[in-house]
Amino acid sequence: MDHHRLLKKINESDRVQDKEQAKKRAEGGLAGAFKDNNYRERNRNPPKSFKELYQLQNKQLQKKQVVQERADKRWYNRFLSRES
């Protein structure tokens, strides 16, 4: 199979998946609108408003930043210990 046909097939399957996700979002209201790592937790107790949704996203963003800062510190400390 040449790569043009393969690409076409991949694009078609992507389109089908996008349609299915859009349908789920339409059915689920806000609860299904934004999928990410914590969607299970949110679907247990879905946000009732956009304000709640934004607060939740900010909390997740802060968690990611903290994790990243820790990783950076570890990397930097390792780097310093190698240099000395």
UniProtKB/TrEMBL annotation:
Residues 1-46 are annotated as: Disordered. Residues 1-27 have a biased composition (Basic and acidic residues). This is Uncharacterized protein. It comes from Fusarium oxysporum f. sp. conglutinans race 2 54008.
